[in-house]
């Protein structure tokens, strides 16, 4: 975020703080006046219950706006009223006189002066060092810092086959001169340049140590350890195992993507507090949606689709705990992490809230820095878990069941809007012999390499899944036969150009693909079967290439495919 943007956030937070003060001053006069009139009767009890709720809200929100002493006193006063609220009806009236004594009102009156004192000397507890981190596309770029021109050329050439845009530099100053905007990239650097790079990291916020991979001629423990000490994300001895290096770049960029951003929905009925959280979390690089009316929770969930839901507990007349239960009525939200953000301090109540449909509890008030770091960590975890459930562990691509769901969705979309989309089935050629000759681990590297290539070569809107062992499905929305054939032929060519090595032997692998156009079939399943049949046709006609189902039909093959 630019400095201007940061100043803007600070100004908005200051405005919220002023609004909070103005509201609280009005509430103080009103509530103190009412509590003074509370007699030992039913109307008096109602006033005390309202007063308790009001103090509870103040205790939770004041600290967030920087009114620490004020918030602590409000909390102490809330606890004074707690026994009345908690006790049996018969005892309540008798307790009133004891609780509402001179001491209670002296402390209640002190709230006004505490508010004024805190307002004078407390700074807005805003994040000082925010990061906006939503730049995964930039990670396709790899900056290569290698003084040896021959090695640099060879590596740049090999990595570009995996779909990376490689920019080579022979020195750190040359790299810095070319990247003045400091876009986030993966950096592959010869470890000899390590001492020059360290000061650069200290001064450039966009360069991240964890996105650096060192190359080294010396593969000793000491050198590897030194690289780890710098916080580097990878280490490769020379000569480089290129597929493994490409794989590491991919892993780093995926880890980065997971840790960047995150979607959080906040349900908080206090409007100033909700806006404060929104500004602070947004400043911390998260996408935020806030709702102050709990009745909107279901609609907003469906629209915003958050990674986590942050929910206040006391939102009279609603309870966050019951809302969490209600959210869980819908199977789709069973796995959504719900974190209570509440000023509730009673441990038993906290545990009971978590037991009834929530996942965790954050106590209010919480500092801005801590809120951002806790929420970010929860988002990363939520994304990792969601990914584990739906993504193939070897490649990170969609699993069989998910890709079939996506295909069904795309099929309906094409039907509804009369759009064109293609589905392709891809299968590695003679893959059994790769495993048999070089071992299963090398076979895994080949599978991952194809997955990475597909991720890079295809558009963001294309959908890729691992359908089976060495079989992949690709869905290409808004893509006709001619375009799909061109794209997949390009993938085939790129893939067959990758050089793998194992046991000092270099080898290449090819793939066969079949393509079908969704709209030409009566169901998504039938289109997939057709793509599969076209792929087998390619296997029987020389492999290493693409077959269109429609051309295969024209030449008389594939009569058996169901078209409905
Ligand atoms: N390394 C590795 N191998 C796998 C994985 N899943 C499936 N395979 C292997 O993929 C191979 C598939 O072999 P086949 O179905 O005979 O096909 P092929 O050898 O590729 O022959 P064609 O498809 O006719 O070109 C088998 O050896 C499986 O064990 C995996 O996750 N990792």
From TrEMBL:
The modification Phosphohistidine is found at residue 56. Residues 419-551 form the GGDEF domain. Keywords: Phosphoprotein, Two-component regulatory system. It comes from the Bacteria. GO terms for biological process: cell adhesion involved in single-species biofilm formation; negative regulation of bacterial-type flagellum-dependent cell motility; phosphorelay signal transduction system. Its cofactor is Mg(2+). Transmembrane segments: none annotated. It catalyses: 2 GTP = 3',3'-c-di-GMP + 2 diphosphate. It holds the Pfam family Response_reg. Residues 263-379 form the Response regulatory domain. Its EC number is 2.7.7.65. This is diguanylate cyclase.
